[in-house]
Amino acid sequence: MDVKQIQELIKLLNKSGVGKMYIKEGDFEIELTTTEFAAAKNTTIATHSVMSPVSITPSPQAIAIPNNVPTTLTTNTAKDKPETINNANVITIKSPMIGTFYRSAGPDKPIYVNVGDEIKVGQVICIIEAMKLFNEIEAEIAGRIVKVLVDDASPIEYDQALFLVEPI
Questions:
Q1: Dihedral sign, Cα of residue 10, residue 16, residue 20, residue 24
Q2: Which of 107, 108, 134, 139 shows the shortest CA–CA distance to 123?
Q3: What is the chain's alpha carbon radius of gyration, rounded to the nearest angstrom?
Q4: Is 99 left (phi over 0), alpha (psi -120 to 50) or beta?
Q5: What is the pTM assigned to this prediction?
């Protein structure tokens, strides 16, 4: 059994709602168990064979932080200087669909919004291309753009954070 098959088993286990799964295939045995810990699922794998043990840890994005816990987000990318953003007064604008994120209507067109720009309700802030259709995404809140979380022309998922906005 290879790692890809084990990953598929983990997905199946998480979707099924079953708490424990045991599989024996020849001299290979695997036991998968899920436990709930602070709204994040941790999956542990114990293996008994010639293979070395495999452990899966959730990604930082999979760990949920309750809204009432004050936290700060520190960013440090090549194009941005390090900054600290207090999430107590910041709202996240999320993607309403799967597609490709664009900051402007075209390569020769101006960018819709930059960090520091004030936005109004109904103002176009980006475009998401889905199935050859270009969908203008409008702001649902008025505020100031604090951070752009996605690179131009990047694939995005449904409900993925796109912008951090400080309400006015």
A1: negative
A2: 139
A3: 21
A4: left
A5: 0.50
Terminal alpha carbon distance of the chain: 55
Cα–Cα distances in angstroms (integers) from residue 125 to residues 64, 119, 130, 159, in the given order: 27, 8, 16, 16
In the chain, the amino acid numbered 91 is: I
Per-residue pLDDT of the chain (168 residues), as tens digits, is 677 777 777 777 667 666 777 777 777 777 777 654 323 344 444 444 444 444 444 444 444 444 444 444 444 444 444 344 555 689 999 999 999 999 999 999 999 999 999 999 999 999 999 999 999 999 999 999 999 999 999 999 999 999 999 998
Residues found in the chain? 168
91-94 β-sheet, strand order: 91-94, 161-167, 143-148, 118-119
Domains assigned to the chain: 3-62 (no CATH), 72-167 (2.40.50.100)
Instruction: For residue 104, give both structure tokens.
Output: 């402007």
